[in-house]
Every structure is written in structure tokens, then in C-alpha cells.
Design brief:
Layout: H1 3-16, E1 25-35, H2 44-57, E2 61-62, E3 72-75, E4 78-82, E5 88-91, H3 98-115, E6 120-123, H4 142-150, H5 158-164, E7 168-172, H6 177-197, E8 203-204, E9 207-208, H7 214-220, E10 227-228, H8 241-249, E11 254-258, E12 261-266, H9 270-273, H10 284-288, E13 292-293, E14 295-297, E15 301-303, H11 316-325, H12 328-338, H13 343-355, E16 360-361, E17 364-365, H14 366-379, H15 387-399, H16 402-412, H17 414-421
Parallel strand pairs: 10-13
Antiparallel strand pairs: 1-5, 1-6, 1-7, 2-3, 3-4, 4-5, 7-15, 8-9, 11-12, 14-15, 16-17
């Protein structure tokens, strides 16, 4: 199989993602299941697996019924899956309205809560509240173990990313390649500030984190070849489908399908592997999911910067995305502003935001810009859709970040901290 053929196949996938009505949001909410007394992680066999078994009794269907392990479930177009360190992810089918996202999330979360064991709580924040990374087991899935081995050769926080983090991810539609180019550029332009807005990681390895934007630090020290901003994403003003496909070809897929099995490929780039395989032995959907940039293309555009936030503040994530990316005049505003910046500017922004919440660089004052982003998003939403976004803004105005509020509660009143991260449960 030729490199050109693989590239063309990827471009075909990206083009199939074009939608006449580009107005839906798909959201993935990640959580931890913990012991409510110790705040330690519940292991797979005696803890998380039993929750999945209980959900099957409530009508959820295993994604892989042939497997003896239940690592994924689906029902009514939604899915519940387990991440490498036991994080439990709720993936909702796409909706137009924030109220519909909230309703579906609440219904599924209540089913999970009803399936918990008596000693368990399901919580939502960006990094595990108590357990240290070396105590968290990798779930019994071959590809997770292959990823774990691969990441031994990568950045110092790669395993922390796999086992200790939780996020809120949002997918948005595009109606043409030109629309993708604009939204992808704006997503990368705003990426450092979206990390900043949705910072909800107060704890790292069992202790309060004394800096800021932990998620940003972890991802920047995971694997530079597949994380952050793709090379030329901001420097190239017309970064489109072909450019993204070439970015994938330059990345190691970690494993590749051969004779219906996934073979570990380690550090070899996709472009160097494809010549040795047949056309039907390149699972491009899997390959596209094995890179982790801030904005990822898989037939829709996925934004991956926000931490997992406690309910109901996690609804502020799709609300902000809708208010910015589905409002043509606001999208155009940030697209025009992005034209003055390139890749290196945003590497600089990210480095600065790891140390400080509020910075000034090249004419951008973070505090002013973030207020502007909130105002633009809120003005483009109905009063009901903007409710959690307004509440989150009040927290940021008062404490600097959700993370700072959580740190304050953790130090002063642990019961209130636990109540907040478990959505008031």
C-alpha cells in the first residue's frame, strides 16, 4: 500500500464528515470511581467491573459481547467505556441543545450512581484525588498494555496521562473544508485559554498542586509527536485535510492491524509502515484515534483541552464551545485575531500558563481575553443554555479558577470538597 493511497483514504474520511447542518455537539465526560471514605481508586476486578455488570442488568449492552471483560457498554446511542486507569467515560450521542445534553447526562449518571457499590462514589475532576499513579492498574485490554509499554519511551508524564487524568471532550461539525480550516485554527488559537478556563486539577499524586493548569503540563510532557498543536497548525494559514493527514503519516500509530490482530509497532511512523501492509490492514479510524492533539480530526473536530469538571459546571464546556464555534460572527472574530500568531507563540503561551494564571504576551492579556471569551459565548446562547457558564465565570472571578476553589475546600472542609466533586451527591 502506498503512502499516497493512505493519505487519500484519510482525506475521504475527513470529507465524509462534512455536514450540511453543522450544528450538533457530541460530548464525552470522564469520571473516577473512588472509595467514598478513603478517596482511593476502586480497582477493576472488585470495583469498577461490578458497576459495569450492574449496568448490564439495567439494559446496557456490552460493546464486545465475546469478551469476558466488560470494558464498554452502549444504550440508546450513548456509550459507557473504561479508560486505561479505570476512568469511566460517558459518551453522549450528538445534540443541538445544551439542555438535551444535560438531560441525557443526568439520566445516565443516575443509572451509574444506582449501580455503584455501597462504598463507592463517582466523581469528576481533572486528576485523581488521592491514589498515586503506581497504585493504579492498567485495565485488562491488550492495546492499553501496548500503549503503556510505548509510553515508557515518551515524556515523563505519559503514564500519568493514561491512568490519572480525566477530561471533558466536545466534538463539533464542519460544513466544508473551508469551515474546518477556520474552526481548526480557532481551536488551536484558543487552546491555551481553554485549558486555563477549565482548569479543575487541584491535586497531583495525593498532594495539592502548587502551580496551575496541571492538564496542560501533563499533556505537554506526554509525547510531543502526537500531542499539543500539530506542526504548522497556526503557522500555515490554510492547514486543511491534506495537512492533517500528513501529520498522521508522520506519527507512530503504536499498533497496526495485521491478519485481524493488532501488532505493536512502537516508534515507527505510519508512513514507514504502510508499504508493508495491504489496503484492508490499515484501520484508519483506529490510527486517527491514536494521536492526542488539543484539536483532533476524526470525521468531526474534537476539542480535548478541558479538565473533567464537577457537575453541573461540566455543562459549561459544551456551552462555551457552542457559543464560540457555532456563532459565525464570533468564530470570524477569533479567526481574524488568530492570523497574527503562529505555532511558536502558542508554545510560549502554554509554557507561561503552567506557572501563572494571568499573563501578558504579544498584546494579549489573559484575564481580559478570558472575560471576552465568556462574554462572547454567553451572548450567543439562551439564558437557560448559558446558566452553568455564568456560574463558572463567577467562580473564576472569585477564586481565579475552579481548581483554586477545589484546593480551598480540600484544605478547609473535605466534606464540601467531596460533595462538590461528586455533583452534590
Amino acid at each position: 500500500m502506498t503512502e499516497e493511497k493512505v493519505l487519500n483514504n484519510m482525506i475521504s474520511i475527513f470529507k465524509k464528515g462534512i455536514k450540511d447542518e453543522a450544528n450538533k455537539l457530541g460530548v464525552e465526560f470522564e469520571h473516577f470511581i473512588i472509595d467514598k471514605n478513603s478517596l482511593m481508586s476502586c480497582d477493576y476486578e472488585s470495583g469498577v467491573n461490578k458497576v459495569m455488570v450492574n449496568l448490564v442488568k439495567k439494559g446496557w449492552q456490552p460493546l464486545n459481547p465475546e469478551s469476558k471483560e466488560i470494558l464498554g457498554l452502549m444504550k440508546n446511542g450513548h456509550s459507557i467505556t473504561l479508560e486505561p486507569g479505570g476512568q469511566i467515560e460517558l459518551s453522549l450521542k450528538p445534540y443541538v441543545k445544551i439542555q438535551a445534553i444535560k438531560k441525557a447526562y443526568e439520566e445516565i449518571l443516575n443509572e451509574i450512581k444506582a449501580s455503584l457499590l455501597s462504598n463507592q462514589k463517582i466523581i469528576s475532576l481533572g486528576y485523581h484525588p488521592k491514589s498515586k499513579i503506581n497504585t493504579l492498574e492498567i485495565l485488562p485490554k491488550v492495546r492499553y498494555h501496548q500503549m503503556f509499554e510505548y509510553f515508557k519511551t515518551c515524556g515523563e508524564y505519559a503514564h500519568y496521562m493514561m491512568k490519572g487524568t480525566a477530561s471533558t471532550q466536545v466534538t463539533i461539525d464542519y460544513n466544508s473544508e473551508e469551515d474546518f480550516i477556520k474552526k481548526f485554527r480557532v481551536a488551536n488559537f484558543l487552546s491555551p485559554f481553554i485549558y486555563r478556563i477549565f482548569d479543575a486539577s487541584p491535586i497531583f499524586e495525593g498532594a495539592l498542586y502548587n502551580k496551575h493548569n496541571l492538564r496542560l503540563k501533563i499533556w505537554d510532557n506526554t509525547d510531543q509527536r502526537r500531542c499539543g498543536i500539530p506542526n504548522q497548525a497556526l503557522t500555515n494559514l490554510n492547514f486543511g485535510f491534506k495537512d492533517y493527514g500528513q501529520y498522521i503519516l508522520e506519527s507512530p500509530p503504536i499498533f497496526l492491524k495485521k491478519e485481524n490482530e493488532y501488532i505493536f509497532t512502537g516508534n515507527e511512523k505510519l508512513k514507514d509502515l504502510v508499504k508493508d501492509v495491504k489496503n484492508d490492514q490499515v484501520d484508519l479510524e483506529q490510527v486517527l484515534g491514536m494521536v492526542f492533539p488539543d484539536a483532533r480530526l476524526k470525521g468531526c473536530l474534537e476539542l480535548r483541552m478541558p479538565d473533567a469538571l464537577p457537575y453541573p459546571f461540566n455543562m459549561a464546556v459544551p456551552a462555551l464551545v457552542k457559543g464560540i464555534f457555532y456563532n459565525p460572527s464570533v468564530l470570524e472574530k477569533y479567526y481574524e485575531r488568530s492570523l497574527d500568531f503562529n505555532d511558536s507563540d502558542f508554545h510560549k503561551f502554554k509554557e507561561m500558563l503552567k506557572e501563572n494564571m494571568d499573563i501578558e504576551y504579544k498584546g494579549i492579556d489573559t484575564k481580559i481575553l478570558i472575560n471576552e471569551i465568556f462574554e462572547d459565548a454567553i451572548n450567543g446562547l439562551s439564558e437557560e443554555e448559558s446558566l452553568e457558564l455564568i456560574q463558572l465565570k463567577k467562580i473564576i472571578d472569585s477564586y481565579g479558577s475552579m481548581s483554586n476553589l477545589l484546593k480551598n475546600l480540600y484544605e478547609t472542609k473535605t466534606s464540601d470538597f467531596l460533595s462538590l466533586i461528586s455533583g452534590g451527591q
